[in-house]
Amino acid sequence: MNIINIETFLTIVETQSLSRASEKLFVSQSTISTRLNTLEEELNTTLLKRQPGKKIIELTPKGEEFITIAKRWMALEKDTAMWINKEPPLRLNVGSVDSLNIYVLTPLYMDIVNNIASFSIDISSHSSVQVFDLLESHDIDIGLTSRLIRSNSLLSEPICSEEMVLVSSSRFSNYGGIIHPQDLDVTKEIFQDWGPNYQIWHDYWWDPTEPIKIAVDTAGLILRFIDIPDSWAIVPITIAHAFETVHPIKISKLEIPPSERVYYKIIHRYPKPSSVEPLKIFQDYLHKFIKGHPYLKEVNSP
For 164-254, which CATH superfamily applies? Predict the structure, then answer.
């Protein structure tokens, strides 16, 4: 049905007159009659009783019923026009490892949503392997991980790195500002696996057959055990300083540290069309965030 004809019908009902409807719509009365007749033909029914000489219109029972339907048509037309003219939302699905999301990237996420009102972010935490799987299936749009997995359908590049430091309780331990690995008692360690390179370094300094007393799978658990006397853990420096804001800890440098923890940005080789613009915005903010971060160091792609 022609929306103009429906609008004309509702104007007739509102003004109770074909002549007043023509004045309100700035068209001739004959045009009003033509539109009404066309609408009735489309509906195969009569909406108005034709009574020559009578100035006030009278609706048929079908005309009375059609008022509600006509109003719904007009509302739908309005909603459709708004939908057509509305800018598409900027929504991005970001997947990362837990330690990055909680201790490193939160200020970045806040910066984006605070500065771009139309930008929405879905943030999820996964293992590095899961991040790659979710990217390949287009369930997330960009991944930020600490481990690299080769994939023909994904594009990966290192974006930044940070040094690893030792943390201990400032109340129940007494480690110096610089520690040599050979001076550490591995039985006092709260161990977290920071990747293959870290494990190689760890196995060099301590017997890999030595049983680990406390091992955790998320950085937040380290704080649960750090007050055990003389306990220590090795963490990225951003996490160390995050710990410092909520718990009395001491940060010590390692005289011979493990390799810096490297972070990778991964996107699909063929991203969803709806994610292209938000991906560009996110990556611009990410670059600025890394550049201005006190502990992250930019890494150039090979």
Answer: Periplasmic binding protein-like II (3.40.190.10)
Per CATH, is 3-85 categorized as 1.20.120.80? Answer: no
Residue ranges of domains in the chain: 3-85, 90-160+261-298, 164-254
Per-residue pLDDT tens digits for 132-159:
999 999 999 999 999 888 889 999 999 9
User: How distant is the alpha carbon of residue 231 from its chain centre?
Assistant: 37
Which CATH number is 90-160+261-298 given? 3.40.190.10
- State residue 87's pLDDT score: 63
- 262 vs 268: CA distance, rounded Å: 20
Distance set, CA 211 to CA 187, 192, 215, 261 (Å): 8, 14, 10, 24
Question: What does pTM read for this prediction?
Answer: 0.71
For residue 241, the tally of other CB atoms under 10 A from its CB is 17
Rg (CA), the chain: 34
Residue 186: closest CA among 221, 241, 234: 234
Structure-block tokens of residue 206: 């301590």
Q: Hey, do 90-160+261-298 and 164-254 end up sharing a CATH topology, with the first three levels equal?
A: yes
Alpha-carbon torsion (38, 42, 58, 51), positive or negative: positive
